[in-house]
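Usage

Read records sequentially. Each one opens with the input sequence:
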Amino acid sequence: MSKQLIIFEVQREEVEEQDTKGFTRIIQSLSLKGKEAKSSLAVAFGGYDEDKRELFEIEEVRNYMTKVFKKVPHMFYFINQEPYQSQQLLLTCLADIDIFFQGEKLSAVEVTERYQDFEEIPEYRVRIHMGNRLWNTLKAETRKYARSIQDSKGAEEIIHQMEELYIKEEDR
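and closes with the structure output:
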């Protein structure tokens, strides 16, 4: 049986008002489900399709995610990486980043209108600098929650995956 993927969309109004109730509520609800909810949540942000900035370039989004992380620091136990790259999306909103962009910067709407072939979309690369404080908090809180539901192995799998994907050797 495949795991159900829950897609949660944070609305622009919630970000602008710094209203984290919906996001924290879904994490709290998943927390009650325990192991069965591991890696089951994909997160999207609505209302930014015409904005040419990436979400991690928008200060209100970064502030919103910092506020959510402070309230539910074990949230990465539930965040799914595929198919929506939610881990990367949320980490880029929490961490320091370097952006390497090639081509013209476009909004999501412009990309959809202009490109039919995925391979032609302008490429950007992001280097995430987690910083010891953020990375250590993320690991500790994920492990703490996982221990509370007897899933230490699950926490280590998530941490290892994130480490492989986002933490460069020199940052460890």
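Summary fields computed downstream for this record:
- The two ends are 36 Å apart (CA to CA).
- The first helix runs from residue 12 to 16.
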